[in-house]
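seq as requested:
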Amino acid sequence: MSQFSFFTFDSMLLVRDAQGRYLPASVDEILNVARQVIDQKYQRGALFTAPELVKDYLRTKLVGFEHEVFAALFLDSQHRLLEYVELFRGTIDQASVYPREVVKEALRVNAAAVIFSHNHPSGNPEPSQADKVLTQRLKEALALVEVRALDHIIVGGEDTVSFAEQGLL
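C-alpha cells:
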C-alpha cells in the first residue's frame, strides 16, 4: 500500500490495491495508516513534554503487533524529537535488548535524552522484573555518555504503564 492511498466510505476505511481498485482495509492496513499519520504529525522537532502525548504517540506506534518491539524516542535537550527508532524485535513474550546498541544509536543521533518503550502483545502493560532490570541497565549505560533516560513506557493493548509515573525510574 502506498502512503495515504485510502479514503473512507460509509465509515469504512478503503485502500487502493495494485490494480487501482478500492477494497475494505484489513486491521493491519488500518494500523499501518495510523502509524503513517502519526509519523506525519510528529516529525523531527516535535516537542514531547506532556506524558499523555508521549503515551498516545507510543500507543499508536506499538499497538497491534503480535511480537514484542523495543523502541526509543531520542530527544534533544529541549525534549524535541530527533528520531523514533524500533531497535529490537522479539517473539510473543520477549525481545533481546542490547544496551551497547541503544547507546550507539543515542550517540548516532546526538541525543540528550531518551524515552524507552516496548509493547506486551498479551495486552497486560504491567512491567516484569526483567523489564525493571533492563531499564536500570539502560539508564546506567546511557548515563556514562550523558544521555538522560526520561521514561520507559510499556504498551499493552490500549493501556500503558509509565516507569516514571510509577516511581520505577
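The chain has five helices and eight strands.
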